[in-house]
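sanity check this record:

:::
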Amino acid sequence: MDSFTSFFDAQSSSRNRWSYDSLKNFRQISPVVQTHLKQVYLSLCCALVASAVGAYLHILWNIGGFLTTLGCMGSIIWLLSTPPYQEQKRVSLLMAAALFEGASIGPLIELAIDFDSSILVSAFVGCAVAFGCFSAAAMIARRREYLYLGALLSSGLSILFWLHFASSIFGGSMALFKFELYFGLLVFVGYIVVDTQDIIEKAHFGDLDYVKHALTLFTDFVAVFVRILIIMLKNASEKEEKKKKRRN
């Protein structure tokens, strides 16, 4: 009982320490790390633009599918195996991986545009706001405060993998699909926080590989965006079905 009391006391005291001044306190992040983060997020924005181009190319020529997924995976492996001093080549591979990824999720984006284009805009804005908020929370928090969640999130990711593997073999129900969808969204939102703090911590110790760090955040962003878009499409389609039943 004393342990529970001390836990809640610690939580309340940590909440009391939060103030407007703490929101402006980036003194834990050195100027070198701040410059590195600017490079990371600039590269991330460029990768998102490349991904949008890939989705647009799919809409024009229907190129998205298994081959573009292989192309994305091959680009990522090639990037990770390329030495850091070959900066231009690694940036080009990052853009290629993003373009292939955009083409791979192009069918989902095309479906959203055909159904209601406002859903696509809402999903992207919602994902961007969530990504920005959780990244900012990771930057403002004390160093290494959320890194302990990495093992928990890895366990959650392995659960998602085995659930998906089991459903692909034995068949899955709608309840299992919804659980995978929402639980996966929770896991990857958590990865935004953990990966942001991990990038900051690595940069403090001299790891300034902004291309690899941008790739990490890009995969988090896409994973969250895809799940938000599927959830919004599913909810919108259910509403349409209810309206049709009422009319009949």
